[in-house]
Amino acid sequence: MSKIRWDLIPWHEVREVAEVITLGAEKHSDYGWRDKEIEDHFAAAMRHLIDWRTGGIIDEETGKSALAHCINRLLFVMHVEKNYTSRIDIEERIRPSFVDDIFEMAKKDVDTE
Q1: Is the alpha carbon torsion for 66, 71, 77, 79 positive or negative?
Q2: What is the pTM of this model?
Q3: Which of 37, 76, 80, 94 could form a disulfide with 41 if both were Cys (CB 3.0 to 4.6 A apart)?
């Protein structure tokens, strides 16, 4: 691999993700997210993604981007997957059709509005 291209990262958006993480630390604890199961982080990420997809661009509680919340939770999923959970455990617990089911539900919500 070539040198890592840090210059390609959209830093303003990274800052908003960091702001979301900071708000979470102030509300709960600095590393309380490590005590949650990977499924909890995944489910929260999906809720934020669906909120965004169905028009909830800004999280009502924090005033921050729903996508920043989603990315925050996906970072936690990546960390837990890499450091605490075997790949087999993840594949057994998060089945691909679950994601399809959630997007189908979100689509129905949008279609009925």
Answers
A1: negative
A2: 0.74
A3: 76
